[in-house]
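pasting input
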Amino acid sequence: MGAVDRVRISPVVMPNANPTYPHPRQEVRERSVGYTVPMKPQAERQSLVPAKQTTIDPAKIAAVQAGLLAWFEANRRDLPWRHTRDPYHILVSEVMLQQTQVDRVIPYYRAFLDCFPTIQALAAAPVAEVIKAWAGLGYNRRAVNLQRTAQHVTTELGGVFPRDVAALRRLPGIGPYTAGAIACFAFEDDAAFVDTNMRRVLHRLFVGIDVPRPTASEREVLDLAVIAVPPGRGWAWNQALIEFGALDCTARRPACVICPLQAVCCAFPAIQGAIADVSRGVRLKPESAFSGSNRYYRGRVLAALRDLPVEAGESIDLRSLGRCVRDGFTDADVPWLYEVVQGLARDGLAMAAEDAPAYDAGAGDPSSDYGDLRVKLP
Ligand code: SF4
């Protein structure tokens, strides 16, 4: 049975319906009985257009939207890129936020825009000056790619950013996440896009626990993202998903006890026990000699990459990939998976795609160097 067949969307659970918390595994069984997400066969799901076939109780969607938007209003951080709709400024912030914490990015964002206040200024600058302005943020490749994008927009498009996701995707260095972020945060389009944190929040709210690995595929989570965007509120909604994943519904310490979405969350309360199990390094199944070999995992990685919508250029970050291919995958396994993927890349079977924004996730964790790296088929 594939992941697609296992996806269940639980009905709304009222806060007082079950005042005592059952054992996590008991809760998983209870919550696995609900509305099946009807998915087309894999061959029919290879489309650039987000699938519309995922169905969820509209009351559940409305409850999540209302709760998350209210939480965002009360808890949002005052971040400089939330005061602008300039697509160039949004692009700078999004590129800087890839693999770097918000607090660290803020002074660099301001200083960089002081140096290069317009896309034309960045495009015309000597590359050495751009790298110098980037110094301290790390991953200088991001700065070089950012300038290449600026040069393309300046020379090929007269300095004017396209407004829609499909056109943004055609810009060099712009992946699906960044295209959606620019369309939404600069042009207030109701775009659906997911990074690591957004994916985690959507999975927990609408599908269930995401550890030791997600039960919904990348594509299914993107489908959820599409139907969850409240019309006309895309900017606030996507900012809220990012903020909530960074501050409250974190990977390893979700603040379930004080969470206003507890009553409508499919992962609550089982998520706490599941995370504790993973932290203790519980392996759900003992591995055989072959099933523990690199050859075995190369096959599993390729199968997971093939499951992505290839012609849409979809990619997956290493953490999510790891949870797809290995039970009990933790951040400590990221360097191992990186080596497996590097081997596939050397053989021409995989390649790095756009790095995913991290937004505080994995802060201070050495494995975060690789965990948000996105990979795909060549
Ligand atoms: S109850 Fe816990 S897992 Fe669910 S949304 Fe809230 S913080 Fe996240």
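fyi Residues 1-53, 355-368 have pLDDT under 50 and may be disordered.
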